[in-house]
Design a protein that fits this description.
Elements: H1 2-38, E1 50-51, H2 54-64, E2 73-81, H3 99-106, E3 108-113, H4 128-137, H5 141-144, H6 160-167, E4 173-177, H7 191-200, E5 204-208, H8 212-224, E6 231-236, H9 238-246, H10 253-274, E7 282-289, H11 304-307, E8 308-313
Length: 321
C-alpha cells in the first residue's frame, strides 16, 4: 500500500515537472535563437534554418548547371568542421581574415540543423556519422540507414562523391578524414561504398590520415596539383575533440580556438586554390559546414545546442539547395 501511494506521488511529481521542463527547453531555444539572430552574421534565423541535407543539393545543383562564360570545368570543396556549433562562428565575427566571412560575403551564411526533419519523429542522433551521411547524400537516416555512429550507409543511398563521378558530371572525387569510423573501421559508414567505387573503377579516393594536420597537408597537396579532384570533401576533427575534452561552446577556450584553427586552415586552402594557374577558368563552389553541435561534453540529443549547425557557401543562387 505504501509502495503504491509512493508511486502515485512520484507520478504526480513527474507530471507537475513536465511543464517546467518544457518551459525551460523553450526558453533555452529562444535565447539561443536570439543570440544567432542578433549576431548580424546569418542570412536566416533558426525559425527557417536549412536542413543539413541542403549541402548535397547545393553540390548537385552546381555540377548540373551550365558553365559560366570563360569557365571550362566545375570544381567543389566541402570543408567539414566536426562538432562546430552554430554559435561558435560568433568568435569569428571580428576576425580580419576569415574563411567563413570570405565565403559567406560572396554568397551566404545559414543556420542549419542536424538530427532529422523533426525533433520527435524520424530522428537521428546528432552525431558524426549520421550528420555527414545526411550532408553527403541529401537524405535523412530513414533513407541512409545511418542513425548513429557505427551504422553502414545503405547501398541504395550513395554520396555525392560517388554519384557525380558515376554519372560523369565530375571526373574525380576524394574524401579526406582522420576518424576511422568513416572508412577504415569494421563498422565504418562508407566502407562498403569505398569498396564499390574500387570495384567499379570509379576515380573516387577514400583517404584516412593520422590527424587534422596530416589532413591539411594532404589537402594542400591536392588543391595545388593540376589534376586536383573535381569534388573534394574533408573533415577537421578539432572542435569535436575539444568539445568532448572540455565542453562544447565558446565558454571553453580550447573549443573556440579549435573553431578558429579550422577557419585558418580553410582560408589557407582557399588561398592555394586561388593561386592555381587554372583558377580563372575553373568554376569553384566552396562550402563550409558542420555535422552536429554539442552540449556539455557530449552530443547526440535533440537540444538546440546539439541540433543547430551552419552552412556557408559562396554561391548564393544555390543556397536554397
Amino acid at each position: 500500500m505504501f509502495a503504491g501511494a509512493g508511486l502515485t506521488r512520484l507520478v504526480k511529481v513527474i507530471k507537475a515537472l513536465i511543464p517546467l521542463f518544457a518551459l525551460l527547453f523553450t526558453f533555452n531555444s529562444t535565447m539561443y535563437a536570439a543570440k544567432i539572430g542578433n549576431s548580424g552574421m546569418f542570412d536566416n534565423t533558426l525559425d527557417n534554418a536549412l536542413p543539413q541535407t541542403a549541402v548535397a543539393n547545393m553540390v548537385n545543383a552546381h555540377f548540373s548547371q551550365p558553365l559560366p562564360p570563360g569557365k571550362t570545368v566545375k570544381k567543389c570543396v566541402i570543408f567539414g568542421w566536426d562538432g562546430a556549433r552554430c554559435d561558435s562562428l560568433l568568435t569569428l565575427k571580428d576576425e580580419p581574415l576569415s574563411a567563413i566571412r570570405e565565403v559567406s560575403d560572396a554568397g551566404a551564411l545559414f543556420a542549419a540543423y542536424a538530427g532529422g526533419e523533426s525533433k520527435i519523429i524520424d530522428t537521428q542522433s546528432t552525431s558524426t556519422a549520421p550528420g555527414w551521411a545526411s550532408i553527403l547524400t541529401g537524405k535523412w537516416a530513414k533513407d541512409t540507414g545511418v542513425y548513429n555512429n557505427g551504422d553502414l550507409l545503405k547501398s541504395s543511398c550513395r554520396t555525392v562523391l560517388t554519384s557525380l563521378v558515376e554519372s560523369g558530371q565530375a571526373s574525380s572525387a576524394v574524401f579526406l578524414c582522420s576518424w576511422g569510423g568513416h572508412i577504415t573501421a569494421s563498422d565504418a559508414t562508407y566502407r562498403a561504398e569505398a569498396a564499390y567505387t574500387a570495384q567499379q573503377g570509379l576515380d573516387v579516393r577514400w583517404e584516412t590520415y593520422s590527424g587534422d594536420d596530416a589532413v591539411q597537408g594532404a589537402l594542400a597537396q591536392e588543391v595545388s596539383s593540376p589534376g586536383a579532384a573535381d569534388l573534394i570533401f574533408l573533415i577537421y576533427e578539432r572542435p569535436d575533440s575539444a568539445g568532448h575534452d572540455g565542453g562544447f561552446g565558446n565558454g571553453n577556450p580550447a573549443y573556440a580556438d579549435a573553431v578558429r584553427a579550422c577557419d585558418r586552415d580553410s582560408l589557407a586552402v582557399i588561398r592555394l586554390i586561388q593561386a592555381r594557374d587554372t583558377f580563372d577558368s575553373e568554376d569553384w563552389l566552396f562550402i563550409i559546414a558542420s555535422d552536429h553541435g554539442g552540449q556539455g561534453t557530449g552530443h547526440g540529443a535533440q537540444t538546440v545546442e546539439c541540433r543547430t549547425t551552419f552552412i556557408a557557401t559562396n554561391k548564393i543562387r544555390q543556397a536554397g539547395g
